[in-house]
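Exercise 7.
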Amino acid sequence: MKILSIIASCFTTLLFCTHASATIVSGNVTGGTSLTQGGSFIKLSTPFTDSNPGNTVGQNNFQTPNFYGFDEGQNITLAADINVDLLANTSTSGSISAGSTVASHYIFFDPKNTTTQQGSITFDSNIYGVITSTVNLGASDFLINTGVNYLNPTLRGLESNDSVNISSDLKTISVNWTADNPGDYIRVLTDFSPAAVAVPVPATLWLFAFSLLGFLGFRRKTV
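Solution. The predicted structure, written as tokens, is:
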């Protein structure tokens, strides 16, 4: 009976795996000289080797016309208020209250020479706000949890001629920016995924489980 109980417990764990993290779903380059230079959206996985030096971002580490993003810390409960430069459902700065649970995503454009770019990125959960200033980016780097080396030069963030907007459904940001040295960088804070996703066990695992239980039952009868 003890063996059967252990097997049942393990099989239940396999039966329903859950996912509870917010993630970048998709992105596009839609305009600007970045598009004419062949720029496209690239979602990075950490640690990444696309940069120079590797796994480093913040100051001329990529030097391409591409539009980049990667997921940072997930499901972090804020111990204190955190300032954002664009709060969802407003056109102004504000703060996300302590006690809120957020997921963080780093979005950037780091061309070799002065280049314009328009693009968009969609997330699988609602956007709380966007951080675009050097000060607020530095103050929120504790959210990363990725092992990435974040450089924080004075001009990190966006300039006055750059813009970022949040869609009405709170799932997508659009950017219109011009970058050279050190690049343009923003951090997007979202809620975690709306619901855990149950992943059903493949039919082969069902067959294996029932075969194993049948075998153990046969052994008990013949011992």
